[in-house]
Amino acid sequence: MYMYDRVTEATPMERMMAALNGDKTDRVPVHIYPRWVPLEYLGLTFRQSWEDPDLYVKAQILGQERFQYDCVIDYDMMGPVEEYIGTVLKYPENNVPMIKEPAIKTKEDMKKVNWKVDPRKDGNMPKVLYVIRRLKEELIKRGKGKQRVPIMTWGSCPARTCACLTGFTEWFTIIARDPEWAQELMELALPSWLEMVKAEIEAGADLVWVNDPVSAGDCISRQAYEKLTQPMERKFIEAIRRDTGVPITMHPCGNWHDRMDLVAQNQADCYFLGPMDIQLCVDKINEQNKAGNARCKAMNGNIGAATPSTTDGKKALPYASTMNQSTPEQIEAECAEVIRVTEDSGLRTILGPNCWAPAKVPFVNVDTVTYSARKYGTYSQSSES
């Protein structure tokens, strides 16, 4: 019997979609951006699943059924678009692709690269689309004609794409010394990933998240963000909504404490929080919502994962080391606090880590997240009405 037959609780699809719309179901959903957990559950390396996409699909399906989080993902990886444009990637045995040689070193190089992409036939992009289609098929098959679990796909904000094309250090230099060139590069980069996202939704993805790890306070100034990269983030997000209509989550990766008000204006439906003060974030989001500058309904995060969470933007919380170092008790305590702060603010909680759940997380720690969502995030009948 399929695990969602004869149950009275909401399905993962219902839970996630409701939260992204600001509504309540039976409890808060859990989304851990599960790349490594399902691969490790089946004893696979990333390269094995990259060389045989059906193994990746199998891991995503069985991992979700085992750990009971509320969303599966495609490869969710850096590279297929940037690789086709011209950046050379290396493929480690058990990690996502990394930059080996950037595509653009001079302005002249901009004329030599492949800006126009067709995700359905170019490079490795069709492999990502294949995984999405297969996930859709398997979820519908296991649901006996109904998809009970949503598929989330990924898109790269223009600044991040440019950093992958020029190299990260060089990108920061361009931002500081030649902002006009930075703007030109982002305008060229945006359509390529927009086409990829559109193809991903066409292939069967139900949700999309976008991220920018290169516009945080550790990377560029607030002024550079406000004038250069934030307007392009918003342009990208609004284009995705216009062309696909799916809910959009943005991940401001890193320390964005001094610019959360600007982040909120990107018009995402949800923000996947980095290692930041949860109270500060929900306050800034609600401030912009009330001013009519934002449309955020939910917050995804903010359990310590790749980096610690904080309460002041600097000092790590004692129970928020990393998902693979904390005890279940520490993770439960942080889950309870994340749910309390977010729900008390009027936003909906999508419980998860503050970045991709890293490799080698003890399975009991993953179980603790879903356990905590049930323990602390169940809505009463009176709260739903």
Verbal overview:
The protein is of the alpha/beta class and 385 residues long. The protein contains 15 helices and nine strands. The chain has a single domain (12-376), classed as TIM Barrel. 47% of the residues lie in helices and 11% in strands. The protein has a seven-stranded parallel beta sheet, sandwiched between helices. Strands 2-3 form a two-stranded antiparallel sheet. Strand 6, helix 11 and strand 7 (270-272) form a beta-alpha-beta unit. Helix 4 crosses helix 6 and helix 8 crosses helix 9 (179-203). The mean pLDDT is 92.
Count the strands? Answer: 9
Given this structure, which CATH class is correct? Alpha Beta
Overall shape: it is globular
| CATH third-tier fold name | TIM Barrel
What is the strand arrangement across the widest sheet? Answer: 1-4-5-6-7-8-9
Could you tell me the mean pLDDT?
92
Estimated share of beta-strand residues: 5-15%
Computed CA radius of gyration, to the nearest angstrom: 20 Å
The multimeric state of the shown protein is single chain
Q: Give the uncertain stretches in residue-range form.
A: none
- Derived from helix and strand composition plus strand pairing, the structural class reads alpha/beta
Estimate the helix proportion, in percent. Answer: 40-55%
Integer count of domains: 1
Separation, N- and C-terminal Cα atoms: 32 Å
CATH architecture: Alpha-Beta Barrel
